[in-house]
């Protein structure tokens, strides 16, 4: 290699080194902002899981989002699998051709009263009985009617005309009677129940009040 070419090569290397040395280094990635804690109360146990509450059965635009609460790992897993309970307490009385029977005692194949496409009462077999684990703090809605009937269910359970039970107010009508009182009571049981009658309406009587099934 001639001296002239060697000088040229050294000059080019010097230019490249100088250019690289002067290049700005990329800015470091910003540190992630830690997420604000969703459960505001103290963690009751090391294995507790922070889960958003079910909230009201019908959300309105002005309603605040449901709060977050600590659940046991078992309750959190049940919420993940089954969602929020929308069913009945095991002692809810279901109308059958042989009399009222607690839903917790019913099985598939048992006859219950339902309605046909014209709203006429018909006896049909139960296709399926479902049961959902309920969180320890689950509360039921108790509705008192002017004619003396009283029905108790989860707030999200649908009425025969597709309203959520927990949205009803005093003065509203339910199954042909006026609501005179609405209150809440703790559930206190481990599982809620529902059934699917073999009818197009999927309706059945709970504590003497016509309701709809949540099952499909």
Keywords:
216 residues; alpha+beta; four-stranded antiparallel β-sheet; three-stranded antiparallel β-sheet; 2 helices; globular
Give a written overview of the molecule.
- With 216 residues, this protein is an alpha+beta fold.
- 14% of the residues lie in helices and 33% in strands.
- The strands form 5 sheets. Strands 8-7-10-9 form a 4-stranded antiparallel beta sheet, with no helix packed on it.
- The protein is globular.
Largest sheet: 4 strands, antiparallel
First-residue to last-residue Cα separation: 87 Å
Question: Largest sheet, order of strands side by side?
Answer: 8-7-10-9
Gyration radius from CA atoms, angstroms: 31 Å
What is the mean predicted local confidence, pLDDT?
A: 83
Tell me what portion of residues adopts beta-strand conformation.
Answer: 25-35%
Number of helices: 2
Number of strands: 13
The global form is: globular
Low-confidence stretches: 15-23
Structural class label = alpha+beta
What proportion of the residues is helical, as a percent range?
A: 10-25%
Order of helices and strands: HEEHEEEEEEEEEEE
Task: Give me the secondary-structure topology.
Layout: H1 3-22, E1 49-52, E2 68-71, H2 73-82, E3 93-96, E4 99-102, E5 111-115, E6 121-133, E7 139-145, E8 150-153, E9 173-174, E10 177-186, E11 191-197, E12 203-206, E13 209-212
Antiparallel strand pairs: 1-2, 3-4, 5-6, 6-11, 7-8, 7-10, 9-10, 12-13
